[in-house]
Amino acid sequence: MSGVWVFKNGIMRLNEGVTLDQQSSRKKVLVHLPTGQVVSSYSSLRKMLMELGWEIYYGDIELLQFHKTSSIDLISLPKDFYKFNSVYMYDIVVKNPNIFLVRDC
After folding, report:
1. How do residues 44-53 score in pLDDT, each as one tens digit?
2. Short-list 40, 43, 48, CA closest to 92
């Protein structure tokens, strides 16, 4: 079985018509829906998440993490923003529905 897993409309599906090379060549961005702003740095993302009730979690020195006290959810991101890819973006979208969106550049 070949293909890539694609997250679309809240559902993960195996897309057998797309190779990993084709999927990775499309650059993704994380968009904050209330403002329409593309997240371009961790400082802006941190501000947006904190306004939603997320707090910085200091459990791992290798990761930038956020925890929401009203849930068991944890968002873990790489320390370097240049390593911030669509996998991390979709994690933020799933845990903050109707606030963030991942789209092609």
Report:
1. 999 999 999 9
2. 48
